[in-house]
Amino acid sequence: MYTTECVYSNDYSFSFPSELGRWSVCLINGFVRPAVPLFLIASAYLLIPLRTDTKTFFRKRFMRVVIPFVIWLFMYAVLPGLWGEFSNEEVKNNLSHIFINFIPRASHLWFIYMLLGIYLIMPVLSPWLERVSRREEEVFLGIWLFTTLFWHAHEIFGDVFGECWWNPYPLFYYVSGYVGYVVMAHYIRKYLDWSTKKTLYIALPCFLVGYLFCIGSFYTRSFTVEEVRQLELSWQTTSIAPVLMSFGAFMLIRKITCARARIYKAICDVSAMSYGMYLMHMLILPYVFGICNPVMSPPLAIFATAIITYVVCYIIAKLISLFKFGKYIVG
What end-to-end distance do the CA atoms of the chain give, in Å? Predict the structure, then answer.
């Protein structure tokens, strides 16, 4: 599911050649804003509290996540040079830069850096979550929800609560950001065993309110702002609207059951390939979009690009996984 959402949410243009294009990006991309949060919530839901010692936990993450990540960092630096996208000089620059950060051609890999940071803190966070009371956990989540408003507060007030150029770690720094989704996942698992009816009454409105805010703000801002980072302010994944969407979506998804063995097996198979699909999809997606975009309307081009990229990435990941060394490439 996360791979599906990321394929969609990476497939957009801010040039907006038409009003249809603007609405297509707004509605489709707005709908999949919970992509990153849902992955974090699902991961933490399954991992927290940790059931292994710290050494075993990190060893598994290293084999499953870090090694394929490093391999694909090199691939994004080098492979486009083979078909002329990068000059030899650019390839050299890419190779020197990937030891510091991802290159623009692999911008989606920002997520892996963030994920590894979450993994680093999980062995510390897990014992704390096992000891605190429900009320104490709710206080943390309340403070965290308050920090999700800071994206908008910065527009009005600038730096807040001790932020300045010599202090990037202000008052609420350590209770903000993606770590809140980890705590949310633990809270849901431990305390929110709702009926289907209650889930629909609460989770569905949360998702819809967040979605409407995302698309409304994005559409309005698309006429007034000039930079992508300003345009995306309303649906940054640690801002309030995507938080509402993510909570609602996860609570709804939790109620879905799959009784058919074939469907369950297919889902498990795609899930096993999903990390490799995510790592490679930005090597393929731009070229698929370049084929679809000139001959299709914006919404059709987005959906066609997503589906084709998804299928191609799955096939490639599946073929790689058949080799003995495949797990080191696709996880």
Answer: 17
Count CB-CB contacts under 10 A for residue 25: 24
**Cβ within 8 Å of residue 111, ≥6 positions away:** 36
Tell me the C-alpha distance between 222 and 295, whole Å: 25
Other C-beta atoms within 10 Å of 206: how many? 18
* Residue 86: other Cβ atoms inside 10 A: 20
Express each pLDDT in 166-194 by its tens digit: 998 999 999 999 999 999 999 999 999 99
H-run or E-run covering 156:
helix 150-157
Do residues 11 and 285 lie in contact, with contact meaning Cβ atoms separated by under 8 Å? Answer: yes
Sign of CA dihedral 307, 313, 319, 322: negative
DSSP state of 167: B
Q: What predicted TM-score, i.e. pTM, was given to this entire model?
A: 0.90
Residues in the chain, how many? 331
